[in-house]
Every structure is written in structure tokens, then in C-alpha cells.
Amino acid sequence: MTTLDTRYAHSPKDIARLNTAELREEFLVEQVFVSGEIKLTYTHNDRMIFGGVTPTTQPLEIVLNKELGVAYFLERRELGVINIGGAGKITIDGKTESMVKQDGYYIGKETKEVIFESDDPENPAKFYISSTPAQKKYPNVKIEISEIKPMKTGASEAMNDRNIYQYIHPNICESCQLQMGYTILEPGSSWNTMPCHTHERRMEAYLYFDFDEEQRVFHFMGKLDETKHLIVAPDQAVISPSWSIHSGVATTNYSFIWAMCGENITYDDMDFVATKDLK
Fold first, then answer.
1. How far is CA 1 from CA 58, 146, 179, in A?
2. 113 a known binding residue?
3. Is 199 annotated as a binding residue?
4. Quick one: which residues bind Zn(2+) (predicted)?
């Protein structure tokens, strides 16, 4: 079964009036992975589609044609995939590849068939996907975390010592506008993206995971002078509009997948915000 939830774009003035429940309804995706199902969210922020594919006893295929006005899902889109669960397989136009935890894949437009499978239904693969509109076909590329040299950033004394793995990035493979990566915070660190920043030219979506069910992440968003926050459980995702700051802290260390799209694919195209200016 495939579920596609639609979220609409908002101006900064809109969220100033939202209470906690309304803010969560608009920007937090509380259920991403459901065993045996495909759970996707379509955001009108740059028309990104993101979500979870969790095959168990049967293979799963994303079929969105009528919903997108196309003949098949990737007719006019590109796709990024990262597996954060058990071992599985992905079949791309008849070519099957194994996908262990932390393996990723870039799949270019005009790919007609993408099928997801798990090796063990009791320990299913959890394929996190992100898809954006594309104007050109680039080669499909499998991406393994062992092949990526992480960007080390932050410091333990600032509680933000972390490794950034760039999966879909010009250093790794070509894409039209999709970028995607994996950040892992070291034990004892809990802050990410601090000092925070905005980038009016690109939106992002975040998936927070790899922390205990009893712990929580506090994701900060909003304008720098009127910040809001979302409290996020494991395996939940957040939509981050281009005008919003995005930063987070948690009650433990954790990992997150970031995916972004927009005007360019320049990773460091960002406008930093001084911590002292936040309100």
C-alpha cells in the first residue's frame, strides 16, 4: 500500500499564529516507516517527495503516475535512497543491487522501475527516499558510506562534534537539484547546525533517527527573531522551508538524513545567523 500525504507551503507570517498542534500538523511527519508499506509526503516547498519504503514479505514499488500527471514515477523526477534498516535489495530497471544499512543510491530521471525488497522480513530494510523534479537524466550511482570521506565539523566542547557524509553531492555524483546526506553526532554531542543558518534558495527535509524511543530531538525553525520548535521522536521527519532557520538539539546523540533542493547544488550556499541574534 502506498500513502501520499500533501503538505502546502506557508509564509513566515502564517506560522506566527500556529499553536503546537497546528505547527506539528503542517511541518512534522510523525510516521515515516510502516512495515509492508510505502509512506510518502509531497510538500509544495519545491515539490519534494520524501518518505519511507519498508518491504517485508513482498517487494514494494513506488507507483505515482496519476498523482503527478505522468506515465511513471520518475518520468520527470530524480530519486535518492538511503537504507537505515536491515539488509535489502533494490532493482532498478531490471538490475538488482544489495543494500545494507547506510548504503545509498542516486537514480536518474526516466528510470521506469524501482523495486525495493528486504532480505529478512523480521528485520526489514528501511529505505528513506527523497525525490525532486529533474530536467536532465544523470547516471544511476550506488553510494556506500565506506566510500565517502566524512566532513568532520563541530567540537566536543560545543556539544556538536559530528561527521557529515555527503551522498548525493557534486563530489560524489551528478544530479539536477537533489542533494542528500547523512549526519552522525558523536556520543556526548547533541547540537546540530549551530550556529544555524538559512538559505532562501533551497528548502530541506530532515529525518531524525538512531536514538532511543525514550529520547527526543528539539528541532528549531522559524524566522531568526521569532523561533518555533518541534519535539521529534525517532524516525520522524521535518519539513524546513527555505526562509526558516534549522537547527536542533536532543537529549542524546543521534543521526539525521538531510535532503534539499532548489535553485542550485552549492552545499555551502547559506546565510549564517549569529546565535546572539536568535529570539
1. 11, 33, 27
2. no
3. yes
4. 197, 199, 204, 246
